[in-house]
Design a protein that fits this description.
The protein is mainly beta. The protein folds into 2 domains: 160 residues, Lipoxygenase-1, CATH 2.60.60.30; 196 residues, Lipoxygenase-1, CATH 2.60.60. The protein is built from 3 helices and 26 strands. The strands form 5 sheets. It has a 7-stranded mixed sheet, with no helix packed on it. A hairpin with a 2-residue loop joins strand 10 and strand 11. It is globular, with a radius of gyration of 25 Å.
Length: 426
């Protein structure tokens, strides 16, 4: 599509793919969406991006990145049937991290029917230069139907400039505190008057509600080249940290995985289980998993809780662990891993994204690499104390269990956890 053109959208379930070619000097990019009424958001909740991956209505959600064959895609899912009637436009944007869009080759946006896989529209951007944020397209209502328009409008002020332009309140870095004034010369104190008690006013109005928290745009993406981050240095060592795993199945039915050279079954009822091995500072060890209903506890040891068992992989729910960082000194190490419970024989043709969202500090996310081995268990992230720092290390390590050995025992052996395992079920 040329810039400025539009096309009717014949379906309501859409997959929006932002894509580009990867390379050693190519900046990372992130897809986002803004739901607008009269050209502005109604609140910060109308902004969907990596730190706020789902709209409250469920109409838009951020699915995460996938890298394959030198091509990177970041995906948004849009359910037009769930877009509230007041919303007139869904802006589809992108922001560059570590450079400008002039350094991003092959930048495009695709609108795909999520049910059939048919491409509805595609716009290739070829004129980007110094822009660090881009509105690539928009979905808009026209006479009761939805259309897609190729926009191609850039911002040199990055994601913050794009967001504030549409009415988002952005959490800016704190300014340096003002200098403390010198104390005045000491004087002889005058006699104190007796305290006066003032009765409260009758029918006093309630105090004004606190303003909503501004949107935080900062994030940390872990890669092979930069696989670790200190939560301590990011200010994220208190409150609840949510760990989310979401995934996409590229093949819904049994097919061939060329790199494995044999059939690999992928079914719609794929069930992945997010798990965690923990070792506390007092030496106690254990596992958090739905198998055996070992869901843990948030306010008592081990201070880790598994929310439930999800089979969809949606970013709005997915598999979630919560870690109570108010007790971070009770942790010696935590290994977050995922197993395939049923529905597939390996992680081939499966794309997963992991997001660690501390209550305070920047979000930490990463995608799993393409799986080329018959693996049913993947170590995702290792959280340890190192020289007083609480550090998250990206593992993204596919493991292949030996015949008759469970995935849990396999990951235990790989990381020398030293636990005894018995069969379990859920």
């Amino acid at each position: 599509m040329p810039k400025g053109s539009n096309v009717a959208v014949p379906t309501t379930a859409l997959r929006i793919e932002l894509g580009w070619r990867a390379g050693p000097a190519v900046p990372d990019a992130d897809a986002s969406a803004l739901l607008l009424v009269s050209g502005k958001v109604r609140s910060d909740a109308d902004f969907v991006f990596y730190n706020q991956p789902a709209h409250p209505s469920g109409a838009v959600r951020h699915e995460g990145k996938r890298t394959a064959g030198g091509q990177v895609t970041d995906t948004l899912l849009v359910e037009l049937a769930r877009v509230e009637p007041a919303v007139e436009t869904v802006v589809l944007a992108a922001s560059a991290d570590g450079g400008s869009f002039g350094q991003v080759p092959g930048l495009y946006i695709r609108v795909v029917d999520d049910r059939s896989g048919t491409e509805v529209a595609r716009y290739d951007s070829s004129d980007a230069s110094v822009e660090t944020a881009f509105v690539l397209g928009e979905l808009y209502r026209r006479q009761g139907a939805w259309k897609f328009r190729a926009v191609g409008q850039g911002y040199s002020s990055g994601l913050e400039g794009l967001a504030t332009d549409f009415g988002i309140t952005v959490d800016e870095p704190p300014h340096a505190p003002p200098p403390v004034p010198l104390a005045p010369p000491a004087t002889t104190p005058s006699p104190m008057a007796p305290p006066v008690t003032v009765p409260p006013p009758v029918n006093a109005p309630p105090p004004p509600a606190a303003p909503p928290s501004p949107v935080r745009l900062t994030k940390v993406t872990l890669t092979k080249a930069a696989p670790a981050v200190s939560l301590t240095k990011q200010g994220g060592t208190s409150g609840a940290m949510r760990v989310n795993l979401n995934w996409q199945v590229r093949k819904q039915f049994t097919g061939w995985a060329a790199k494995l050279g044999r059939p690999v079954a992928m079914h719609a009822d794929l069930d992945l289980d997010l798990c965690a091995l923990y070792e506390l500072s007092d030496g106690r060890k254990g596992v958090i998993q739905s198998l055996g209903n070992a869901f843990g506890a948030l306010h008592q040891p081990p201070y880790i809780h598994l929310d439930g068992d999800d089979r969809t992989g949606a970013a709005t729910s997915g598999e979630n662990l919560t870690i109570n960082l108010d007790h971070q000194h009770a942790f010696r190490r935590i290994l977050i891993f995922v197993t395939i419970y049923e529905g597939a024989r390996s992680f081939a043709d499966l794309h997963a994204t992991v997001t660690l969202q501390p209550q305070h500090g920047a979000a930490v996310d990463f995608s799993l690499d393409e799986c080329t081995v018959p693996s049913t268990v993947c170590a995702l992230a290792l959280i340890t104390h190192q020289n007083g720092d609480l550090v998250v290390h990206r593992e993204a390590r596919y493991l292949v269990p030996e015949r008759g050995v469970s995935p849990q025992r396999t990951v235990d052996h790989a990381y020398n956890w030293g636990m005894n395992w018995t069969p379990g079920r859920k």
